[in-house]
Amino acid sequence: MSHTAEIIGVGTELLLGNVANTDAQDVSRALSELGINVYFHTVVGDNPERLKRAVGIARGRADIIITTGGLGPTFDDLTKQALADAFGKKLVYDEEQAEIIKGFFKDRARGMAMTENNLRQAMLPEGCVVFSNGCGTAPGCAFESGGTHVLMLPGPPRECRAMLEVCAVPYLKKLSQYEIRSHNIHIFGLGESAVEARLHELMESMENPTLAPYAKESEVMLRLTARARSESEAEGLMAPVLEQVKAALGDIIYGIDAQSLENRAVELLSAAGMTVAVAESCTGGLISKRLTDIPGSSEIFPGGIVAYGAPAKTSLLGVAPGTIAQYGAVSRETAVEMAQCARARFGADIGIGVTGIAGPGGDGSGLPPGTAFIALAHEAGAYCRAPSIFRADDRVRMRTFSACHAFDMLRRHLTGLPVEVAVF
Amino acid sequence: MSHTAEIIGVGTELLLGNVANTDAQDVSRALSELGINVYFHTVVGDNPERLKRAVGIARGRADIIITTGGLGPTFDDLTKQALADAFGKKLVYDEEQAEIIKGFFKDRARGMAMTENNLRQAMLPEGCVVFSNGCGTAPGCAFESGGTHVLMLPGPPRECRAMLEVCAVPYLKKLSQYEIRSHNIHIFGLGESAVEARLHELMESMENPTLAPYAKESEVMLRLTARARSESEAEGLMAPVLEQVKAALGDIIYGIDAQSLENRAVELLSAAGMTVAVAESCTGGLISKRLTDIPGSSEIFPGGIVAYGAPAKTSLLGVAPGTIAQYGAVSRETAVEMAQCARARFGADIGIGVTGIAGPGGDGSGLPPGTAFIALAHEAGAYCRAPSIFRADDRVRMRTFSACHAFDMLRRHLTGLPVEVAVF
Question: Which of A188, A303, B17, B246 could crosslink B308 through cysteines, CB 3.0-4.6 Å?
Fold first, then answer.
């Protein structure tokens, strides 16, 4: 039997636009992976009457209702009371949850006083399954009534995500006789529509597993999902498709179930026992920042120089003034020399050099904003890419895209692939 | 007459959890500033029947319906067709929009071919007000039918935001006899609850204008909003409150209607004709990256050194090995010397130095992850802050917070305020 869920976000802050409804995104993603259909999201404020109306509508079009928010102490259990009323249940005091809440304030709240309101969070619908909150005080819960499953999760995204994973997903899995498994295929070097074009027939012909593309900033991800009676059966369904996708896309796939391009680069550097140093102009520190976002990156990253002004490129980094005079600060030659200098300055195995015009203004050279040269220098030579950048007017995208190219060049170099292949 | 709006997001990608519904947030915020109530958000997939049901429900509870998404070429004008059907209107071909779409492909799409689907975007409800799309090809529109106003905006957040500001807000303003004006008060140096505590009585006693706090990453923003029959009357209502807020919070207010801490720092540096160079350890390039996010920052930022490993701190940046040996790489003394070296290396007026332990692991020194020292060196001396960081386990927050401190120290130094005031 196929289930249909509706997600109801509760919170006036969502209707005022103070925050985006990321809880709905998190819950939707989890439901999608479980193979549960979601046809509607609703958001309603901290208002019991309107919440009850929204629940009434949701009951008519879904058999799983998941609420997020409205469990906190300040709004007096708005969500629990409204849902309990809607399904004719009473709220009862849960001793165990009360003890947990008391314990939280004793151990972890660092001097915050517990109020009576906090204990009201221990009031839960009679006969429900209690979802303990690992990150905060508000417990969630689930119950079934007349064929409808109701799950209530807390609003703060950290708490919602944790309870979703630890409590709600296992609860929902029991509603299905199927196991759902998926793999993410990460791609850099081809746009979403070009990826779809290569896989169009395959994607159209599939029912289980399914293959769906997701465009990310400068990247594309494909998610392969299978539904089966066991994990191994699901994996068996996916294996041949994974091979077909690999055959169709080849080495522009940078990872399966990988975290990010920079994570992949850091992994490969660590495995090779190598280091990378960076000289950045237009990216202004972004490449260094993304490398050091990763815990433990100090093992592979001695440092970088942000040579934003021209003098820093020569005096501090060591690019020959003649190179800049002859070819320009934004040129293939300067990028390569920046990479070589980064390598030399930090005594690193590999150097990355990036120079370009982030825009929106030009640099007086006549080159258009959006121009970028990304170079990689190693012991035995150097490469340089000059990707064509689609939106010349987008400073953020130009910088992100240039950084992604640097990580992709690292990956390709470290896995013995041709680095300069013109993919964009 | 007070209006009530409902926002309907159209897009299966929202229901699958691929993206968060940031359009609803952007539209909600704009409506809130216009004094228009929002009681519900709905999200529906790329399915005409379900969209029509959602529109039917929205008509019963709102007199303004704003849709986002479903205007692109691939889904055949799903939203426009469904809304036109729901309100008994025909779609007609708009010559002017067709010319704009053709022009977009000619001038800006660099070799992307225009398809017939693209021209279908020029089909619009008869008699509507056309909203031109400044960032993409899909036009939006608005019409009124039987007392209900319908506005359709594109889904891609950039396009939605631009059309909201340029077209939708002016359209909605005409529906109200009031002018809504607001000012954003930007604060660094006090948490949200402490800000609220200082202003609690003032906030409780106000009806028009209103004052509401918004927590941002490492910062707090207060929004002051007034409703009046004219702009000058609204400003007149806000002026005395603005003075009261300034009196209560003082110099932790870093700007009124400012863009960001780093923008404020760049503005002040530009105005003073001064430059800043940066030496970063734990922040790993984040400070340089945030400075260079700002177009034109090359005027005030010659560059930075990411001295992530210990050797880079001495050999490349020039910190005395004895300083590190005596006080440690993570120390007040090293941070100050890093700032001084950054200043010297780049010939800048001001140097920033940051060293710390981003975590989650320690550095072997016994200092806890989350420890940070942020120093500013200038012609006549130096300061250093060692903020207490609440969440020692959050690498992202620790780095963001340290960068914010650096920008705040720049601001305070450049405006003659005491820099080392211990605010956290």
Answer: A303
Residues B392 and B318 in one domain: yes
Would residue A422 count as lying in a domain? no
Residue A384 lies in a domain: yes
* Yes or no, beta carbons of B41 and A42 under 8 Å apart: yes
What pLDDT was estimated at residue A424? Answer: 46
* CB contact set of A74 (below 8 Å; sequence gap of 6+): A117
A20 Cβ neighbours under 8 A, 6+ residues apart: B20, B21, B22, B24, B25
pLDDT at B235: 96
Cis geometry, peptide bond prior to residue B209 (ω within 30 degrees of 0): yes
Give the CATH number for residue B379: 3.90.950.20
The nearest CA of chain A is from the CA of B106 a distance in Å of 14
Strands (E), A208-329: 210-216, 219-228, 253-256, 276-280, 303-307
Is A248 an 8 Å CB contact of chain B? no
Do A98 and A51 sit in the same domain of this protein? yes
A47 is a domain residue:
yes
Residue A134: which residues within 8 A CB-CB, separation 6 or more?
A: A159, A162, A163, A166
pTM attached to this predicted model: 0.80
Q: Tens of pLDDT along B352-403?
A: 999 999 888 888 888 888 899 999 999 999 999 998 765 556 788 889 999 9
Instruction: Give the nearest chain B residue to A275 (CA atoms).
Output: B309
Tokens found for residue A322: 């003649």
CB-CB contact of B313 with A298 (8 Å):
no
Among the candidates A256, A288, A318, a domain finishes at A256
- The model's pLDDT over B299-327, given as tens digits with 9 standing for 90+, comes to 999 999 999 988 999 999 999 999 999 99
